[in-house]
Amino acid sequence: MKCRDVPGSMSHIQSLPNELLVGIFESGVSMCTGHPELRLPFQHLVSSVSRKWRAVALSSPCLWTTIVFDCLWSPQFKCASLWIERSGACLLDITIFINPISSDSAKSAMDRVIPHTHRWRQFRVVTFPQSMFETIVAPLRTAAAPHLRRFDMTVHTDENYFETIRAPPTLRDHFLTGNAASLTSARILGLYHMCTPPLTGLTFLQLGGSFGHCLRPVNNIVNARFTIESLRDFLTESPTLTHLVLQRLDISFPLNTSVFGIQIPSVDRVS
Predict the structure, then answer these.
(1) Which of 76, 138, 195, 228 has the largest CB neighbor count within 10 A?
(2) What secondary structure letter does DSSP report for 124?
(3) Which phi and psi (to 5°) does residue 251 adopt?
(4) Do residues 142 and 261 share a domain?
């Protein structure tokens, strides 16, 4: 039985206090997050029920904190920009999906979220090609994200890009050097060289070379290169690690190299 079938049911719902409605809306958002079969986000659905519900939803910043930029779907892209405004001062969970043909949209998405790094709680950028590396990473290098807890970056192999590279660089790049004091989880896959946030407070770290879904590696050039010294540095910088995942990394072992000097003081799981 639906509410409209019960006499006076809608009037009873409309008479609920705003605080109770906000609590109901928050529960609905939590239950519906991650269900792509929904044609419209829960927030939009409740906002279209009545003027009161719309007013309550729009005046509740906590309902608009999950920001998803799909760079191939312009309606959702516009909605994400609107949600940033509606989220007020709340912490944000941001995801950017990028396609090789969406470089302009990717830059626009980064331009819109970078001014709000002080509000980031989670940040994911998914499936961008190596040729867009600077577009994504350059704004992050000196950024400060003091509330960021989880960082996730996945890069796809861009074969045309790798055709111009004779050997992968071995230098390590850094980002979020301004402040990432709350960061505890970092997942970075697919880079041809290592680029990491500050590692001091991490409890989970996943590093990987070429992304497993790419069509084919190019002479293994997409595998990130490590030396024993760089691996030792990574672990020394991460004294609080409890989970460490290393995959498809090209680790260089010079002749007569001993690895017994590498200490992993707190890791209870290595994959």
Answers:
(1) 195
(2) E
(3) -95, 120
(4) yes
Per-residue pLDDT tens digits for 165-180: 444 455 678 899 999 9
Residue 111 shares a structural domain with residue 7 = no
Rounded to whole angstroms, the Cα distance separating 224 from 232 reads 16
Same domain assignment for residues 11 and 111: no
Locate all alpha helices (DSSP H) within the chain, ordered by sequence: 9-14, 18-32, 42-47, 51-58, 74-86, 103-113, 133-137, 159-162, 228-236
Distance between start and end Cα atoms, the chain = 51
For the chain, the maximum distance between any two Cα atoms, rounded to a whole number of angstroms, is 84
| In a shared domain, residues 54 and 73 | no
**Contact status, residue 62 vs residue 56, Cβ threshold 8 Å:** no
Which residues constitute the domain of residue 116? Answer: 65-270
The encoded tokens of residue 197 equal 């946030």
Handedness of CA 52, 53, 55, 56 (dihedral sign): positive
Residue 179 in 3-state DSSP? strand
Q: Is 226 found in the same domain as 158?
A: yes
Q: Which two tokens stand for residue 150?
A: 């989880």
DSSP 8-state code for residue 171: P
The candidate with the shortest Cα–Cα distance to 240, out of 186, 192, 164, is 186
